[in-house]
Amino acid sequence: MKLLLLTIILMILAIVLLGVRVLFVRGGRFPSHHGSKALRKRGVGCMRSGE
Questions:
Q1: Could you tell me the CA-to-CA distances from 45 to 29, 30, 36, 49 in Å, in that order?
Q2: What is the end-to-end Cα distance of the chain in Å, rounded?
Q3: Does residue 4 register a pLDDT over 60?
Q4: In whole angstroms, what separates CA 24 from the centre of its chain?
Q5: Percentage of the chain surpassing pLDDT 70?
Q6: Distance (Å, rounded) from C-alpha 49 to C-alpha 47?
Q7: How far, in Å, CA of 44 to CA of 51, rounded?
Q8: Is the separation of the CB atoms in 30 and 22 below 8 Å?
Q9: Taking the model in full, what pTM does it have?
Q10: Mean per-residue pLDDT, 2-31
Q11: What is the DSSP string of 3-49?
Q12: N or C: fewer beta carbons within 10 Å in the chain?
């Protein structure tokens, strides 16, 4: 039971920390990696654009 409670608390904490910028910054969005130069160097393209 303790492990389940700890897991749930950690998951909630992770979700809140990931969403801090989205929730508390005006106009905040999750980072976008669609035009990442580092990924393009490795040959990884954006799935949305079909590269």
A1: 21, 19, 9, 8
A2: 47
A3: yes
A4: 15
A5: 73
A6: 6
A7: 8
A8: yes
A9: 0.47
A10: 85
A11: HHHHHHHHHHHHHHHHTHHHHHSTT------TT-HHHHHTT---TTT
A12: N
